[in-house]
Design a protein that fits this description.
Blueprint: H1 7-19, H2 23-35, E1 39-40, E2 55-56, H3 63-71, H4 77-89
Parallel strand pairs: 1-2
Helix pairs in contact: 1-3, 2-3
Amino acid sequence: MNKAIDQSTFLEFYRNSVMNYSVAMKTAIRQRLQDEKKITFDQQTSLTDTDDFPVYFPSKKDVDLIIKDTTVNPKFSNFYENWEFIKLYTRGAS
């Protein structure tokens, strides 16, 4: 019997998985999010900002908050799908 999983359940499951990564791995995710301009720590907006990205976070040090908020946000799904590819099939994730 096939049962489909709804989006919010999947995102919660994924968040719980990523929250168990090492601090180094979560920091690498945070850095890649920042490098790809998906998140920012600068309150001032830029002309290149859109309604979706970058998402502002008050502290670079709070990687758990960044992970919690981005993993359950469907707009970050492509980022995390790409991250899984990088993590599984390349030597270095950062």
